[in-house]
TrEMBL record:
Start and end residues of each Amidase domain: 53-413
Species of provenance: Rhodopseudomonas palustris
One matching Pfam family: Amidase
Top-rank lineage group of the source organism: Bacteria
Designated name of the protein: Amidase
UniProt GO molecular function: catalytic activity
Similarity section: Belongs to the amidase family.
Amino acid sequence: MSYPLGLLAVHRAFREGTLSSVDYLATCTQRADEAEPWLKAFCYRPPADQITGGEGPLASIPIGVKDIIATAGIPTTNGSRVYADHVPDQDAPIVARIKQLGGIVFGKTVSTEFAWRSPGPTVNPHNPQHTPGGSSSGSAAAVAAGIVPLALGTQTVGSIVRPAAYCGVVGFKPSFGAIVRDGVHPLAQSLDHVGFLTRSVADAAFAFGLLADGADAAVAAQAVEGDVLPAMSSLRLGMVRPPIWDRVSAEQNQAFEAALEKLRRAGASVEPLALPERYWQGFEAAEIILAAEAAAIFDALVTQYPELTSPQLKELVAAGNAISAPRYIWARQLQASLQQELPQHLSGLDGILTVPAPGEAPEGLTYTGDASFCALWTMLGVPALTMPIGRSARGLPLGLQVIGGFGEDAKLLRTARVVEAQLAN
């Protein structure tokens, strides 16, 4: 279904002269023209004759940009009727960086309204009767359908990892703050992340190395250009089944267990990780933080534009307005406390393994799926990545989530590359 080349492969083919950038862009455009009538991954695509790239490591590579990320001269609607005619004057820094590196903004990918729960029109490329997930719906679908090799997404609870799992691609949420969020419409400032959807872990590492800030990004960039990866026998992985594991489908559980067993047979140490009970209060804390901060952002908007905002957004604002100051302070204090003590629980581990979602993408397009299995890791601000590991009986993707320590994005990406290679065998 997908165009065979991922981000790194295209970059190398351009560099080696084995692929014409003009031909590749034409192929991506043709694929979009064929798929978009039913896929609906994009809410806006610039005319083909207005798409130009520059020089650099992303030269002439088409990239999808989620519709809550500002793009100069290109509509940024935030998935909202309120912003239907909004055209920013400036690019978000992450978009400016893409352009500086030669990349092409191929189009704006569909987002749920303000990255919350009111879905757009995008369908799952594996079965259009099923959701692609949200809120980075269009980004996941566009990468999975072979239109672009890289798309930007955002995550406040599970909005990169979950749609990536549902669409069968890699979704990487870096550490909190690793990608500058200026120019990205906020949902909850203490939880919002920017990340990537790609076709492989190496592609995600390459994107992170180019587009993130800090020394860890440089390490990640080096890791995809000939770096020696750790041996499978040296990996120590913790496995986490949160108290909500009863939501996990039999198929997802079976795929998860099969992946763990394959890693163990290859020599990795995979043992249960028992986090203190208070970590599971993080589910409640994340909901409190999100609702309270979203209410502060959107209360005036839903009051001014009741006919242009969804019931889901109004419900979120109402829930946030009902949260007392002591409850919000409790949630933020718990977040800080858990973040501070997490390194001691991860000591000696190369990563944590769990599921990214309860199972396959739900049928229907009105519900984007359960984000609970991403919520704790997002609240903690740690890097998290999902990769496809199998299919359900209905042919829909199932994923594996790999989590690392805060600020240890390069380490997580190296671990995930080894896990991906082993599970692909």
